[in-house]
C-alpha cells in the first residue's frame, strides 16, 4: 500500500484528509513543517506529500525547499493544499517544484483523483528508473566483459610472439608501465593534449604489448642468434615491424567496426623503430610525421633493451641507460618525450626494479625457446 504524508497545522484538516485517504492508502500526518521533514525521512518513506502552505515557523514553500535539497526526499512528489487560490500563488508553487495545487476547501473527489494520478505517475517513473538502472548495470557488465576479452586477446597474441622471443614476459610489463608513465606526464602538454585523451591512453597502454608481434615471422636462426646480425640478417629482422602491421591490419579487416586499440597497436608495431631525425625504419619518417604512440613506444622499448638482462649480455646500469636516452634527444627521440622521461626517471627506475629479469629467468627462457625448436625439428624429421 502506498504511503501518503499529510502536513497541516490545523488538526481538523489533518483529520478530514486522513479519513478521506485511509481507505486507499497508508496515511502519516505532521502538524508542522519541521515535523514533516522528520517524518519524510523515516520508513516508510512517503510516496506522496500533501503539504499546507500557510503554517507558522516554517511555511510550505520552505518545507518544499528542504525536501528538494535532501537526496532522500528530493524525488517525493508534493501537492500543495492551501486556501491561497490566486493564480499567482499556484504559479509560484508549481515553479518551486510542486507537482500539483489543490485549493481549500477541498473537494473529496478532486483530492482522490489528483492523489491517484500522481501516485500512479510516481510508480511509473520509479519503474522506469529501476529499468534504466538495470539496463545501465547490464551495459556496464557487458562493457567490462568486452574489455576483459580484449585484454585476454592482447595477452594471447603477445604471448605468441613471446614464445619464440628470447626476451622474457617482464619486457612487456615494463614497456607497458613506461608508456603509462609517459602518457600521464604528457597529457597536459600542448603538443600532446589533444591526442592523449583518457580513451587513447587506455588504448595505447593496452596495445603496447603487441609492439613486437611481427617477430613471429622472423626465421629462428636470425631471431635467436646470440651474436651480432649480418647486414643481410638485419634487413630481415627489420621486417618484423611490417609483419606486425600486416597481422594487425588483417585483424582489423575481420571486425565489423573499427576497434581503437587495434589502430593504435598497428601504429606502434609498424613505426616504433622510426627516429625523430628520420634515420629509423621502416619508412624513415621524420619528427611529427611519426605517430605519437610509436614515438612513446620507441623510447620505452630502447630504454628497456638497455637495462634488460639477457643471457648474452649484462644489463646496463640504470644511470648509463638514462644517459643514452638523454643523448638521443632531438635525433632518436622526440625531445618532449625525453623531457618527460627525465622528469619521471624515479618511476622508470622503480618499474625496472619491480619487474627486473634475473639471470635464471633469461636462461630459463632461452631453454624454453631451444626446447621448442628442438621439438619442431623432431616433428619434421619424424
Structural features, described:
The modification 4-aspartylphosphate is found at residue 52. The chain is α/β, with parallel strands linked by helices. It has helices spanning 11-21, 33-40, 60-69, 87-96, 108-164, 169-186, 198-207, 220-223, 231-238, 240-253, 260-271, 292-307, 318-327, 335-343, 345-354, 359-381, and strands at 3-7, 26-30, 48-52, 78-82, 100-103. Strands 2-1-3-4-5 form a five-stranded parallel sheet, sandwiched between helices. Helix 6 (169-186) runs antiparallel to helix 15 (345-354) and helix 10 runs antiparallel to helix 11 (260-271). The longest helix has 57 residues, at 108-164. It is elongated, with a radius of gyration of 35 Å. The N and C termini lie far apart (80 Å). Residues 376-382 have low confidence and may be disordered.
List keywords for this structure.
382 residues; alpha/beta; Rossmann fold; Hypothetical protein af1432; five-stranded parallel sheet; 16 helices; disordered C terminus
Strand order in the largest sheet = 2-1-3-4-5
Total tally of structural domains = 2
Q: What summary fits the major beta sheet?
A: 5 strands, parallel
Q: What's the rounded overall pLDDT mean? A: 86
Overall form: elongated
CATH class value of the largest domain: Mainly Alpha
Q: Measured on Cα atoms, how large is the radius of gyration?
A: 35 Å
Q: Helix proportion of residues, in percent?
A: 55-70%
User: Kindly, what is the distance between the CA atoms of the first and last residues, rounded to a whole number of angstroms?
Assistant: 80 Å
Low-confidence stretches: 376-382
Count of DSSP E strands? 5
CATH level-4 homologous superfamily of the largest domain: Hypothetical protein af1432
Residues in β-strands, percent: 5-15%
Amino acid at each position: 500500500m502506498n504511503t501518503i504524508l499529510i502536513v497541516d497545522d490545523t488538526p481538523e484538516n489533518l483529520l478530514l484528509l486522513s479519513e478521506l485517504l485511509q481507505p486507499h492508502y497508508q496515511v502519516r500526518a505532521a502538524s508542522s513543517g519541521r515535523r514533516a521533514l522528520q517524518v519524510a525521512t523515516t520508513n516508510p518513506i512517503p510516496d506522496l506529500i500533501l503539504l499546507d502552505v500557510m503554517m507558522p515557523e516554517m511555511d510550505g514553500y520552505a518545507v518544499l525547499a528542504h525536501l528538494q535539497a535532501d537526496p532522500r526526499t528530493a524525488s517525493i512528489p508534493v501537492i500543495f493544499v492551501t486556501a491561497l487560490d490566486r493564480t499567482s500563488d499556484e504559479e509560484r508553487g508549481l515553479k518551486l517544484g510542486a507537482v500539483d495545487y489543490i485549493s481549500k476547501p477541498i473537494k473529496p473527489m478532486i483530492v482522490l483523483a489528483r492523489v491517484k494520478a500522481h501516485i500512479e505517475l510516481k510508480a511509473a517513473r520509479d519503474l522506469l528508473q529501476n529499468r534504466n538502472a538495470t539496463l545501465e548495470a547490464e551495459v556496464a557488465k557487458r562493457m567490462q566483459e568486452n574489455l576483459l576479452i580484449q585484454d585476454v586477446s592482447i595477452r594471447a597474441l603477445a604471448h605468441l610472439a613471446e614464445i619464440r622471443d628470447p626476451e622474457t614476459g617482464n619486457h612487456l610489463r615494463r614497456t607497458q608501465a613506461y608508456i603509462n608513465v609517459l602518457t600521464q606526464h604528457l597529457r597536459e602538454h600542448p603538443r600532446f593534449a589533444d591526442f592523449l585523451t583518457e580513451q587513447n591512453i587506455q588504448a595505447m597502454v593496452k596495445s603496447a604489448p603487441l609492439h613486437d608481434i611481427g617477430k613471429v615471422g622472423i626465421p629462428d636462426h636470425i631471431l635467436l642468434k646470440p651474436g651480432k646480425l649480418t647486414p643481410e640478417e638485419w634487413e630481415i629482422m627489420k621486417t618484423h615491424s611490417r609483419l606486425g602491421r600486416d597481422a594487425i591490419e588483417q585483424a582489423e579487416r575481420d571486425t565489423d567496426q573499427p576497434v581503437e586499440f587495434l589502430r593504435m597497436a598497428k601504429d606502434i608495431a609498424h613505426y616504433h623503430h622510426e627516429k625523430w631525425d628520420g634515420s629509423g625504419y621502416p619508412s624513415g619518417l621524420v619528427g611529427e610525421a611519426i605517430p605519437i604512440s610509436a614515438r612513446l613506444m620507441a623510447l620505452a622499448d630502447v630504454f628497456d633493451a638497455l637495462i634488460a638482462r639477457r643471457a648474452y649480455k649484462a644489463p646496463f646500469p640504470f644511470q648509463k641507460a638514462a644517459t643514452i636516452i638523454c643523448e638521443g634527444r632531438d635525433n632518436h627521440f622526440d625531445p618532449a618525450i625525453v623531457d618527460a622521461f627525465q622528469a619521471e626517471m624515479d618511476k622508470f627506475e622503480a618499474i625496472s626494479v619491480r619487474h627486473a629479469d634475473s639471470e635464471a629467468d633469461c636462461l630459463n627462457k632461452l631453454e624454453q625457446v631451444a626446447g621448442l625448436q628442438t621439438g619442431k625439428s623432431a616433428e619434421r624429421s619424424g
